[in-house]
Amino acid sequence: MIEEILPAAVATAETFTDPADAMLFPREAAIVERASDKRRREFTAGRECARIALGKLGIAPVPILIGERGAPQWPPGIVGSLDVISLPAERARLAALAGERPAVCWDRLLFSAKESVYKAWFPLTGRWLGFEDADVTISPDGTFTARLRTGLTGLTEPAEAQPPPASFAGRWLADGGLMLTAIAVPRR
Q: Whose CA is closest to 14, among 109, 110, 90, 82?
């Protein structure tokens, strides 16, 4: 769908399954050789989409390695993104919200809410949190909740530290061309 809103000079590709014939270059395979099977499949599908999009721009297949903070290293003169920030259940809920209030950019609001979750999570844990680790439910009343993936909430270091919350509650506002999300974490 993203190609419907981007200029013709931008190439896109997407998949919602694991492409059966997708292959990695040896240097790409080395990046995920110790990763879980799920992560290897995601990485491979992302690289396959990147090569399809690059092909639409007339660029031959090349390895898409990772740079600082995991950012993809594109060929010279190319800028791009491989991120998918929403879970299937979140996309379904956004579609329902779009029918209810079409003036709100629900996908951007979801991105902002997930960023708020990360900004609340990281100071409590000192650990990275991926977009897939929080399932956000946005309510049209200006609130949202984020349930964290099980397994994340059992992390505690040092021994006296309190475990992080299993969920966060936040608020959102879309007004005057701006979109805001916030989570206030009570003092522990």
A: 82
